[in-house]
Amino acid sequence: MDGLMMHRPLLQSGLLDFAAESFPEARIVSRRVEGDLHRQSWVQTRARAVQLSFALEGLGVAPGDRVATLAWNGHRHLEIYHAVPSIGAVCHTINPRLSADQMVFIAHHAGDRLLFTDLSFVPLLEKLQDRLPPMRYVVMTDAAHMPQTTLDALCYENLLAGQPTDRVWPDFPETTASGLCYTSGTTGDPKGVLYSHRSNMLHALATAAVLGPDLGPQPRILPVVPLFHVNAWGLPFTAPLIGASLIMPGPALDGASLWDLCQAEGVESAWGVPTIWQGLFAEIQSRGAKPANLRHIVVGGSAMPRSLTEGFERLGIDVNHAWGMTETSPLGSQGSLTPAQRDLPFDRRMALKQAQGRRVFGVEMKIVDDAGTRQPHDGQAMGELFVRGNTVAAGYHDNAGATARAIDADGWFGTGDIASISADGILTLRDRAKDLIKSGGEWISSIDVENLAVAHPDVAQCAVIALPHPKWDERPLLVIKPKGAARPGLEEMRSHLGAHLASWQLPDDVVYVDEMPLTATGKISKLTLREQFRDHVLPDLRGQAAD
Fold first, then answer.
1. Contact 201, 12 (CB under 8 A)
2. Lowest mean pLDDT among 107-111, 333-337, 345-349, 447-451
3. Under CATH, domain 436-546 is a member of which superfamily?
4. 412 in active site
5. Fold that domain 362-432 belongs to in CATH
């Protein structure tokens, strides 16, 4: 028997309607590329998103069309986030830190027909336009700052001018695609994760449920995590749901700029990766004080060093670890403590905060061994972490091969992480099954680097392993078995690799071995290499080591 309740589709358009009606006093504050500080309400944000939606339709954007963005965190980017899916199109965020080859690939693979860009990226797009698919561009600025460009470009503010400021949003199924993010994951080309209205709305509700008590009523949140990183971890959708004000930092992400912005705008909660928090903490130490209202930070992307967690906690700033992936929308678990845990001694609380926390509602987890046997949740047994739920990817966009490799026979997604889960549901990541390096919150595929490095004429075999780094969490070390007497240096190898990889994906150092250690199956033993080079000091740290 079915219940007798109305069924209305869960659509993202309802978020702006709700925020404009319920939280008119909340603000979107943006440090813009143009150099000024811009303020607007959720009421104004909705009106401008409505204007943009009419402009998009006037340009011929139809349901299902992909509309790309290459932009920093700001109010215009937020407007695009809401306007594009609200008319049934798909918002495709492009990470500007990708290499040129990767950007070109995903633009073609996604089938983008329109691209919105900040002023910062116009020169990059001018260089790439002959390799990108045929499409129009919109520069996210006003007429006074519109640059001379070879792009077929429109001005954002001119596009909105004269358009209606109110509308009834169209209805369509909640399973309609709304957003597209690409992850470089493991090997090969980047893979597209295609979110739906339903998945994003459920993710926003789950995030509000687990973090709401920590955030408090109508908080002032600084999303340092870029909008091109998995929907800024869902904040563009959670914020209007809870009436949060968003303080958008634009391109200025150094410690001093963030401290000033937090202080001036009364930021209470900030979200970003450990590299960002290292810079902010150094600035706090330099000034001798934290921003007055800052009391909460969310850490994602990679684990924060315990010493840094303790440093923030001693300042009265609650550190909340979260775990997730592009494929999980991304929030899969979060580490806010229970009331009982908050009463524990400091050392015990800090130990708990090193774990990845409890799963959020709607995300199921299991761990399995190499034979596929499910392991107990006793905090001791380890295995590969698999997840499933309404906010977990069921596959990759237009990539059947990658989908088949990622999803098991029962429909669970394999994360590639080695984990344990305690009886009370606390997730702890132990290692990674995939050959990935996490640097500054970004993934580096060791296999991609290896495939390019071995193409060098003087390289017989090679392997890339991660070494710990105090700022970037991990950085790649390239280990080479040479073909002959020649041993190309670091700069030569970086130059060889740099034609296909972004600068941050390049190895920090090169070492040579006479023979590669092999496993019983004939594969290079990275476990052995990690042990062999565990005391290796990277070039940028050698001065510190000497001190």
1. yes
2. 447-451
3. ANL, C-terminal domain (3.30.300.30)
4. no
5. Luciferase; domain 3 (2.30.38)
Q: What is the mean pLDDT of the chain?
A: 93
Catalytic residue among 268, 327, 384, 450: 327
The 10s digit of each residue's pLDDT in 10-51 is 999 999 999 999 999 999 999 999 999 999 999 999 999 999
Annotated domain spans of the chain? 13-197, 362-432, 436-546
> Checking DSSP bridges between strand 331-334 and strand 318-324, what pairing results, if any?
antiparallel
313 is catalytic: no
Residue tagged active-site, from 42, 72, 412, 443:
443
Tens of pLDDT, residue by residue over 457-502, are: 999 889 999 999 999 999 999 999 999 999 999 999 999 999 889 9
Any catalytic annotation for residue 474?
Answer: no
CA distance 282 to 354: 21
CA distances from 359 to 197, 248, 321, 365, 428 (A): 22, 28, 12, 8, 11
CATH of 13-197, one of 3.40.50.12780, 3.40.190.10, 3.40.50.300, 3.30.470.10: 3.40.50.12780
Check residue 382 and give its pLDDT.
Answer: 87
Buried b (16+ CB within 10 A) or exposed e, 328-341: bbbbbbbbbbeeee
Q: Is 183 a catalytic residue?
A: yes
The pLDDT assigned to 118 comes to 98
